[in-house]
Amino acid sequence: MRGGSRVPFGRTFAVAASVLMVSLIGTGAVANASGGHPPRHGRECATPSIDRLQQWLASGEGATVPATGSLLVRERGGYAAKVAFLNVEWHVVVVWLGNRFEAQADLSKSAGFWMTYSATDDLYIQLRPASHWSGGDKWLTKVPSTGGKLQKKFFSFAPDAWTTLPELGKPTYSFASALAEARGLVFVGKTPNKLDFRGLAIDRYRPPCL
């Protein structure tokens, strides 16, 4: 256009597309609860893992498929952790944060974790510390059903995001102390459920591969 600036069509199109994308998804759609982005743990371990977590285990508590052992299965060039809860009873699935039972992690500086999963019913995650591993009396947070569809959700480590269930008992230790000596995240549910985990990336924590 005579007398005006000349902007290449490709650049104009790119800017317009960027503006349109922001208007469609919103500026906060890709940010986590602390204002950042989901952590990237880089390369997976040499043996099967999800976000470098190698030990996804059915504990044998409650009727599950598989009944015991690893939940990890090959899925599209990576791995998924899949399990079915069968009955109306408590079922328990364990993830060791340090990839071995004796290990523990200090998560006191972590904002929380991103989890990519599908679930056909609600369940809970317990944060189990090394010094109080056994028993149901743990701090926990609800994992909502996704209706069987894969979803990525951020779970905060803010104390008010974690609670207890009267049926399982109230822990005698603080949530802060559990964060400081976290041995595992334990999934518990009392109803039939079909679960599929594809990601569990913890803010400021890089699991050590075995």
Structure write-up:
The strands form 2 sheets. Strands 3-1-6-11-8-9 form a 6-stranded antiparallel β-sheet. Strands 2, 4, 5, 7, 10 and 12 form a 6-stranded antiparallel β-sheet that branches. By secondary structure, it is mainly beta. It has one domain (32-202): Jelly Rolls (Sandwich). A hairpin with a 2-residue loop joins strand 4 (72-75) and strand 5 (78-85). The chain is built from 2 helices and 12 strands, in the order αββββββββββαββ.
Task: Describe how the helices and strands are arranged.
Elements: H1 9-25, E1 56-58, E2 64-65, E3 69-70, E4 72-75, E5 78-85, E6 91-96, E7 112-119, E8 123-129, E9 139-143, E10 151-156, H2 175-180, E11 182-189, E12 193-202
Antiparallel strand pairs: 1-3, 1-6, 2-5, 4-5, 5-12, 6-11, 7-10, 7-12, 8-9, 8-11
Domain count: the total is 1
Q: How large, in whole angstroms, is the Cα Rg?
A: 21 Å
Q: What's the SSE pattern?
A: HEEEEEEEEEEHEE
Question: In one word, what is the shape?
Answer: globular
Largest sheet: 6 strands, antiparallel
Number of alpha- plus pi-helical segments: 2
Question: CA-to-CA gap between the ends?
Answer: 64 Å
Concise overview:
With 210 residues, this protein is mostly beta strands.
Key phrases:
210 residues, mainly beta, Jelly Rolls, six-stranded antiparallel beta sheet, 2 helices, 12 strands, globular
